[in-house]
Amino acid sequence: MKKALGYLVALLLLVVWEIAGRASDTGLFPPVSDAVTELASLLGTGSLRTDVLPSAGRALAGFALGTTLGALLGITIGWFHHLEPWVRPSLEFLRAIPPPAVLPVAVLALGATSGMRITVIAAAAMWPVLIAGVDATRAVEPGYVDVARISGLSPLTTLRRVILPAVLPALLAAARIALGLALIMMVISEMIGATAGLGYLILQAQRTYAIAQMYAGIIVLGLLGWLATALFALLERRVLGWYQDQKGIADG
Amino acid sequence: MAEIPLIRATALTKSFTSRGRTTRAIADITFAQAEGEFLGVVGPSGCGKTTLLRCLAGLDHPDTGTIEFDGHPITGIPPALSVVFQEYNRSLFPWLTTLENVRFPLRRPSSLGRRARAATREQAREALSRVGLADFADHHPWQLSGGMQQRVALARAIVSRPRLLLMDEPFASVDAQTRATLEQLTITLTVELGLTVLLITHDIDEAIFMSDRVLVLAARPTHILRELPIDLPRPRDDVETRALPLFQNHRRDIHHLLSPTPDS
Ligand SMILES: Nc1ncnc2c1ncn2[C@@H]1O[C@H](COP(=O)(O)OP(=O)(O)OP(=O)(O)O)[C@@H](O)[C@H]1O
Ligand SMILES: [Mg+2]
């Protein structure tokens, strides 16, 4: 019932957009129907294959790379915690740099390539997971490690069978934040030296006053973010079902 | 046969230093435990019981002194040893079902075939049914009561058929009724599996009721005040045994030993 109401509100907002768009005569704020028509024609001309999918692919690759690296580094630093005083100041400094600031450096170093864009997405997605990994690993119940030792597990097996499942809830919560950052960096990275991609599409549409097309791109972005979040929730449910049940976290 | 004790501790000492302050936990502990013997260790709260257990298990190193397992000085954790820890909620893995928790200590090299893996599952199932939790194999620990969780911890401790079972105040955080049931269950398992158990507790009655011999520890820094053989007949009964004059005598003795040094 509440869910249906939520959709009704969304629909209402769309209607408001439509009316406001029709009332406006500056041409800078087209009605939603124009944006949707533009969206359909965009997809019809193969933009799905040339812009949307490559963008999504880069976001996914960067996200996967960054979160994996962040998890590995975070767990390692947390596990060998006498390492932490050595690396903490550098980490604090590096994580404080807003990710978009890395972009000019990356362009210089790697050129305006797909690899460069994946790298900056990964660099942004890495930090939340890395920091959460350090903290969660240090906070693992010492009793768990005692059980592993008494059971004769090697340190590597202990990492895999005890530490990893113990820190997974924290890692996934951080990965959710990283997902948002990855999408942001996907768009921003395509606004420099790009000839295709969603970010390029939106920027190009704005520059050429193809305002409806600009909004079409933004709608696609919204849909992409929504889809990514939904898929992520599905993944969380699969690997963290025990955690959600224990904490009484209901999905939906 | 009983010449070599299963475990022998000689002149153990242990202190902790944190932030420049040194706490002496163990002043001097020497004792031996024969195979098949049920040894109780009582001592006031905070006297160093857990510290002693961690040293015996090889989880911590004593500052001085030696520990021999089966006649050999220990280097690390003896493989034929298992532990029931003081706090079950910090020792059972919430992401595993009770069956997987119990199966956890069983070796599972990836080279093992499907049949060997199924065998470890059977072993875990058997241990679970010994503690009366066969029907809860697929539950997670947090879906069970405290007493049931401690049963799972017990099943996990016996699944590998250890030669020595160390228990650290295993029943301290359950109600009296559950406690009596768990004490009886532990005695039953000890007899059925021929276990050697070292039970740490601060409950004098529990120590007397379960043990063949009781070590009475002093307050921190701890040492052994007295070794007390408990010649109560077995099998022991929750009501009858506790009513025996000999039981009352033991209890009075231990109370007297411990009362001049109240909890710090
Ligand atoms: N890792 C540690 N670092 C510093 N001090 C410690 C550490 N472990 C134990 N101690 C100290 O050693 C003393 C004995 O602690 P221990 O846990 O062995 O007592 P206990 O007899 O098991 O107590 P309880 O009955 O409460 O379980 C305490 O004063 C405690 O503060
Ligand atoms: Mg203790």
Automatic annotation (TrEMBL), chain A:
Q: Where are the transmembrane segments?
A: 59-80, 101-127, 177-203, 215-235
What InterPro entries does this protein's entry cite?
A: MetI-like (IPR000515), MetI-like_sf (IPR035906)
Q: How does it sit in the membrane?
A: Multi-pass membrane protein
Q: For this UniProt entry, what is the primary localization, expressed as one broad class?
A: membrane
Annotated protein name in UniProt = ABC transporter permease
Organism of derivation: Actinoplanes palleronii
For this protein, the record's PROSITE patterns field holds: ABC_TM1
Tell me the keywords, alphabetical order. Answer: Cell membrane, Membrane, Transmembrane, Transmembrane helix, Transport
SUPFAM superfamilies, per the entry: MetI-like
Automatic annotation (TrEMBL), chain B:
Please provide the record's keywords in A-Z order.
ATP-binding, Nucleotide-binding, Transport
Q: Keyword Glycosyltransferase: yes or no?
A: no
Q: What Pfam families would the database entry show?
A: ABC_tran (PF00005)
Q: Which Gene3D superfamilies match?
A: P-loop containing nucleotide triphosphate hydrolases
Could you name the domain of life of the organism this protein comes from?
Bacteria
The yes or no answer to whether the keyword Nucleotide-binding is present is yes
Q: Which residues form the ABC transporter domain?
A: 7-244
UniProt-listed InterPro entries: AAA+_ATPase (IPR003593), ABC_transporter-like_ATP-bd (IPR003439), ABC_transporter-like_CS (IPR017871), ABC_transporter_ATP-bind (IPR050166), P-loop_NTPase (IPR027417)
Record-given protein name = ABC transporter
| Species in which this protein is naturally found | Actinoplanes palleronii
